[in-house]
Backbone:
């Protein structure tokens, strides 16, 4: 199975733009999905596919991909966006792999 | 409203067994693949197992293959995870999650609904 690598922690000033990245070989073949998890809560899907948002997810969340790297961008970060963010993707051997997660702090 | 409610978590000794359940409601259960995902205390998410809508074609992470069995009862709208030969490293909150497709990760893997999780503690 392949791995997905994320930066452990990222910070952003309130109202500014932040990019969270996810790198792995599987991303050359498959799209990443992105999840937001706040303390004590279940993960919430925020981005999937090429750049799709589930109903109810603010449009300040967007996704992109290039080569072996997928990115989640928050344009105009809000205090409520402070959370852990996880990417995942399928692998060529029919597994599902998660990145290690990125803790986002909004300053 | 989609709801997923896990149960069955408990304190168990190493080598023991446990069966988790996930009761689903608010959607046509048999039309969607389901996964189990776990999270050790203070750690990240780890996919454990998945099963397609019909109940065939189970998939397992290498870390649990041969010890865990995923199954579903579509007549009862319930997903199961039978866990045998439990180890300390299996200690985690176990979430069930609904996929947005009948098949497991067809195209991309996206889980649009999650339960709140059930805690499994393996310790002597």
Residues:
């Amino acid at each position: 199975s392949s791995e997905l690598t994320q930066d452990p922690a990222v910070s952003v000033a309130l109202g500014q733009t932040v990019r969270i990245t996810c790198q792995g070989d599987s991303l050359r073949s498959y799209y990443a999905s992105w999840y937001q998890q706040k303390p004590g809560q279940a993960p919430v899907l925020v981005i999937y596919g090429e750049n799709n948002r589930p109903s109810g997810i603010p449009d300040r969340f967007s996704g992109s991909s290039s080569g072996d790297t997928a990115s989640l961008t928050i344009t105009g970060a809000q205090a409520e966006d402070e959370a852990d963010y996880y990417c995942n993707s399928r692998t060529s051997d029919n597994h599902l792999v998660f990145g290690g997660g990125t803790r986002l702090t909004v300053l | 409203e989609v709801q997923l409610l896990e149960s069955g978590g408990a304190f168990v000794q190493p080598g023991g067994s446990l069966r988790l359940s996930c009761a689903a409601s608010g959607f046509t259960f048999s039309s969607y693949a389901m996964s189990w995902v776990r999270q050790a205390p203070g750690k990240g998410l780890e996919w454990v197992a998945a099963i397609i809508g019909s109940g065939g074609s189970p998939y397992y992470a290498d870390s649990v293959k041969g010890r865990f069995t995923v199954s579903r009862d579509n007549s009862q709208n319930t997903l199961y995870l039978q866990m045998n030969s439990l180890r300390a490293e299996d200690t985690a909150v176990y979430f069930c999650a609904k996929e947005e497709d009948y098949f497991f990760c067809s195209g991309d893997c996206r889980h649009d609904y999650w339960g709140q999780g059930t805690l499994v503690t393996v310790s002597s």
